[in-house]
């Protein structure tokens, strides 16, 4: 799922938000893999940057769900 925020500035990927009563419900498919983060230190699962909460012009939400890569997977040595 690829959508754009209300302001069309940041892509919304694999995030569905809705308001039920006074609660914001955020749904993310945890099986998704959107690729490496810009730093290369994690794999993205879902991203929604500066997204206007549906039906609530006074609220914005930012969501980032990621899987950190192990040091071995990144090819780095852990200093102790």
What is this entry, summarized?
The protein has 80 residues and is mainly β. It has one domain. It has one helix and seven strands; from the N terminus they run βββββββα.
Main pleated sheet: 5 strands, antiparallel
Give start-end ranges of low-pLDDT stretches.
1-8
Compute the number of strand runs. Answer: 7
Structural class: mainly beta
Over all CA atoms, what is the radius of gyration?
15 Å
Query: Helix proportion of residues, in percent?
Result: under 10%
Query: Separation of termini?
Result: 41 Å
* Tally of DSSP helical segments: 1
Order of helices and strands: EEEEEEEH
Quote the average pLDDT. 83
Molecular shape: elongated
Name the beta content range: over 45%
Number of domains: 1
Structure description:
By secondary structure, the chain is mainly beta. It has one domain (2-71). Helices cover 5% and strands 50% of the residues. Strands 1, 2, 5, 6 and 7 form a 5-stranded antiparallel β-sheet that branches. A two-stranded antiparallel sheet has the order 3-4. A hairpin with a 5-residue loop joins strand 5 (35-36) and strand 6. The termini are far apart.
Protein topology:
Blueprint: E1 2-4, E2 11-13, E3 15-20, E4 23-28, E5 35-36, E6 42-52, E7 60-68, H1 71-74
Antiparallel strand pairs: 1-2, 2-6, 3-4, 5-6, 6-7
């Amino acid at each position: 799922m690829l959508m754009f925020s209300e302001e069309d500035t940041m892509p919304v990927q694999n995030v569905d938000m809705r308001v039920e009563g006074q609660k914001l419900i955020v749904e993310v498919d945890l099986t998704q893999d959107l690729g490496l983060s810009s730093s290369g230190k994690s794999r993205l699962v879902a991203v929604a940057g500066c997204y206007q909460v549906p039906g609530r012009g006074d609220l914005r939400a930012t969501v980032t769900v990621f899987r950190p890569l192990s040091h071995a997977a990144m090819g780095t040595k852990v200093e102790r």
